[in-house]
Amino acid sequence: MKPKSRYPEVIDYHAKSVWDGETGCTAYVTDNRKVEIDTPTTYGGRGNGICPDELFVSAILGCLNNTFLDFQRRFEMDLSSLELDGQATAEFDGTGYKIVRVKVSGEIVVAQGELDVGERCSELMKEYCHVTRSIASCIPVEYDFAVREKS
């Protein structure tokens, strides 16, 4: 028998973009929240918004962050800080760009006596983040996390 999940089995996400008349757009997501997107100046844009590649890296970091926090709450672990840093490397292959790797590093600081739980949450974060699970077969993701107890 399959255990019952705390979360829906299927969820859809929706976004809409509207060209800004220049080199970018405004993306609208749930509850009409806005994200300003623009082409970087390197590629002839104004650079007034977030580059889609930066959004891609941010989506990975956000998913990892939220996945970690889900396990942190389940284990009732006392968390002092969680900082993640991401980098996506895109290479030109002669016809266009392709993201060829993602590197994620960070530091997780937990309360005294919580190191084992913090390390377990870190491993579960990497295992269950649905964004990194979705891209794993086409883009390698490298991790470098430090988990330490608050001094």
Describe the structure.
This protein is of the alpha+beta class and about 150 residues long. The chain has 2 domains: about 15-50; about 50-150, GMP Synthetase, Chain A, domain 3, CATH 3.30.300. It is about 30% helix and about 35% strand. It has helices at about 50-75, 115-130, 130-135; strands at about 15-20, 25-30, 35-40, 80-90, 95-110, 140-150. A 3-stranded antiparallel beta sheet has the order 1-2-3, with no helix packed on it. Strands 4-5-6 form a 3-stranded mixed beta sheet, with helices on one face. Strand 2 (about 25-30) and strand 3 form a beta hairpin. Helix 1 crosses helix 2 (about 115-130). The model has no long low-confidence stretch (mean pLDDT about 95).
Please outline the helices and strands.
Layout: E1 16-19, E2 24-29, E3 33-38, H1 52-74, E4 79-92, E5 97-110, H2 115-128, H3 130-135, E6 141-149
Parallel strand pairs: 5-6
Antiparallel strand pairs: 1-2, 2-3, 4-5
